[in-house]
Amino acid sequence: MFAKRTNWNLTPNRLSQALAAHRAAGKPLLDLTVSNPTECGFEYDRSAILNALGNPAALSYEPDPRGLESARRAVAGYYADRKEDVSAEDIFLTTSTYERSVFLRLSNALRPG
């Protein structure tokens, strides 16, 4: 049983009805709400991805709450190419806008003063 606060009205609205009719008609659809990139129809360099899995470094996982250091350095390099002075230490990479907003709210809430 779910909590009472989850007792939402799930009656299809006009948008969900139109979406269902569109899908049922087999029409192409660009769904911007899909969060799984493997379901978006992107073309990947499959051999490069599979080869990367054969790299022994892939067996080590050392998470950093600021994001992968090599990725932060790449972002800093991007800005350096544009004559912007941004340190990799000042860059925080998150997986989503929601994660970023939670991080910012927590850091503000925990800030002294």
Ends apart, CA distance between termini: 42 Å
Poorly predicted runs are none
Number of strands: 0
Shape: extended
- Indicate the mean pLDDT: 86
What summary fits the major beta sheet? none
* Total of helices: 4
Order of helices and strands: HHHH
Helix content: 25-40%
Radius of gyration: 21 Å
Label the structural class. mainly alpha
State which percent range the strand residues make up: under 5%
Written account of the structure:
With 113 residues, the chain is an all-alpha fold. The mean pLDDT is 86. The protein has helices at residues 14-24, 46-52, 69-81, 97-109. The two termini are 42 Å apart.
Write the layout of secondary structure elements.
Elements: H1 14-24, H2 46-52, H3 69-81, H4 97-109
Task: Provide a brief overview of the structure.
By secondary structure, the protein is mostly helical. The chain has four helices and no strands.
Task: Provide the descriptors you would attach to this structure in a database record.
about 110 residues, mainly alpha, extended
